[in-house]
């Protein structure tokens, strides 16, 4: 173990030295683009903070007589055998694994959700809701395990949210797994979330979908917290004046929705425009055909719930057992007024650059955006687009679109190791963009 850590540190040092010689990224000042990772040898958590420069976590080394500063890699940051290392991004605890073609599952305990299910990491089983972006096997393969495990532990049935037209196929996937185990069909809930629909999750978050561009019909998700804000016309009053109005029976607050977490799943950069590309038109036709076939099979597989605009599912999770994790994200429990995050209120959405797609506009200014970045500098952009994935060149070209506080980059191709990924990000991303980016490196050597 110690030798592997030494090799990893030496490799990182060589990369940083080369960057310094070539004038590349990863400099040693506090405003540099490198994101720091910190932790301890005996802990399982790694805190990765966007925008934290190398000054606080750097060491000085000599290379050919020249002193260069390189990021200090603490043990948890290089333990590639870990699949469940937690990271903290803007105060939001996340965990999971995302490697292109192998598995993608991002767990958000606070919201009690898993974005995609991959091979179903153990802790994903304790999140009741699974939000599927699409049905490629590396994103949906672990679903039978999720359903069976929750059933075995006596937890409330899995709740799976899918793009329109895929509920019957997802149900068949789980039914076949149960049949192969000699079991009766397992109870779980499948819901189709349309682009104009919304769901109220048991954790208190509101979920909406937006279209993405992949080789299958796909969609991303935005989770909103719901908070009480002082009515605009009452701004400027003293606290005592507000209390007097409240005592008199006047409603002094309004409920607003704040985009907190967004997830793209697999997609090209074309989703940023919110328009129907030729590829999307083909996908839409495929989806309609799939939906017709699925409807014919739905009677045999059991009913599915399609949720459209205005049909918020407000069912709670009162029977959730102690094994469940997460906390509600609703208004303050003390009845106070929350005046934070005024710049991200839904009422202030601007979707002019997203061709009228308000949910997409919210995704691009959510506190944390979880976005794929499959290909780096060794694959041509057209090839990446043809495979339905994001290329780093497209990401850089769209840098001005991202108003997020932090971007968790996922779904790197397995052809890259940690050093390759960090080198590409430090070298190719503009400093302002690099400062808000955190790569998810769990499971990557």
From TrEMBL:
Lineage: superkingdom: Eukaryota
Signal peptide: none
Compositional bias segments (type: Low complexity): 278-300, 326-336
Location of the region described as Disordered in the Swiss-Prot/TrEMBL record: 13-68, 276-352
Coiled-coil features, chain-numbered ranges: none
Comp. bias regions, Gly residues: 22-31
Name of the protein in its database record: Metallo-beta-lactamase domain-containing protein
């Amino acid at each position: 173990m110690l030798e592997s850590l030494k090799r990893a540190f030496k490799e990182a040092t060589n990369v940083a030295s080369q960057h310094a010689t070539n004038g590349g990224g990863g400099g040693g000042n506090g405003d540099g683009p490198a994101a720091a990772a910190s932790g301890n040898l005996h802990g399982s958590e790694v805190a990765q903070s966007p925008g934290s420069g190398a000054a606080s976590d750097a060491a000085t080394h000599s290379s050919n007589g020249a002193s260069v500063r390189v990021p200090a890699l603490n043990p948890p940051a290089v333990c590639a055998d870990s699949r469940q290392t937690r990271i903290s991004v803007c105060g939001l605890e996340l965990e999971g694994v995302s490697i292109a073609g192998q598995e993608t599952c991002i767990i958000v305990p606070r919201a009690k959700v898993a974005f995609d299910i991959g091979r179903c990491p153990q802790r994903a089983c304790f999140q009741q809701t699974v939000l599927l972006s699409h049905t490629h096997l590396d994103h949906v393969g672990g679903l039978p395990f999720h359903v069976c495990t929750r059933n075995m532990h006596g937890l409330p049935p899995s709740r799976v949210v899918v793009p329109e037209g895929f509920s019957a196929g997802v149900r068949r996937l789980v039914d076949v797994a149960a049949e192969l185990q000699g079991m009766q069909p397992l109870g779980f809930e499948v819901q189709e979330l349309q682009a104009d629909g919304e769901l109220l999750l048991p954790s208190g978050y509101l979920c909406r979908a937006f279209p993405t561009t992949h080789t299958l019909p796909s969609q991303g998700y935005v989770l909103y917290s719901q908070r009480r804000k002082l009515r605009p016309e009452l701004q400027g009053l003293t606290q005592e004046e507000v209390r007097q109005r409240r005592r008199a029976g006047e409603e002094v607050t309004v409920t607003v929705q704040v985009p907190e977490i967004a997830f793209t799943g697999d997609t090209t950069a074309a989703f940023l425009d919110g328009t129907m590309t030729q590829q999307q038109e083909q996908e839409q036709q495929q989806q309609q055909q799939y939906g017709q076939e699925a409807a014919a099979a739905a009677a045999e597989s059991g009913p599915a719930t399609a949720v459209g605009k205005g049909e918020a599912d407000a069912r709670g999770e009162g029977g959730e057992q102690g094994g469940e994790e997460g906390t509600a994200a609703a208004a303050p429990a003390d009845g106070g007024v929350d005046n934070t995050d005024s710049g991200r209120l839904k009422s202030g959405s601007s979707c002019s650059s997203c061709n009228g797609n308000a949910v997409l506009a919210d995704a691009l200014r959510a506190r944390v955006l979880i976005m794929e970045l499959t290909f780096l500098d060794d694959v041509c952009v057209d090839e990446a687009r043809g495979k339905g994935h994001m290329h780093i060149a497209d990401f850089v070209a769209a840098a001005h679109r991202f108003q997020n506080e932090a971007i968790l980059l996922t779904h790197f191709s397995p052809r890259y190791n940690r050093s390759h990924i960090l080198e590409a990000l430090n070298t190719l991303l503009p400093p302002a963009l690099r400062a808000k980016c955190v790569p998810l490196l769990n499971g990557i050597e």
